[in-house]
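Aim 2 progress update. The chain analyzed this quarter is reproduced below.
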Amino acid sequence: MEEPQNQNQPNKPSNKGMQNFTRYSGIAFQMIGIILITTFGGIKLDKLTGWKTPVFTIVLSLLGVFAAIYVSIKDFLKK
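Predicted structure tokens:
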């Protein structure tokens, strides 16, 4: 007598596609979060200093982009 196959096996192609979707969309939201937090921090620091040139916004937003890229590459390489 054959055993019934489990419908929720992680090896099925349909489940693999959904796993990839959730993984990559999670990485995208993580990147957006990092960039938004660092940019928001830069805006707040620029308001505190009162400088005309938004130095902290520029520096921290670029730092956030590089940090987001680093984190996403690290997550892509991890399996």
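Helices lie at 13-49, 55-77. Residues 30-77 form one domain. These observations will guide the mutagenesis experiments scheduled for the next reporting period.
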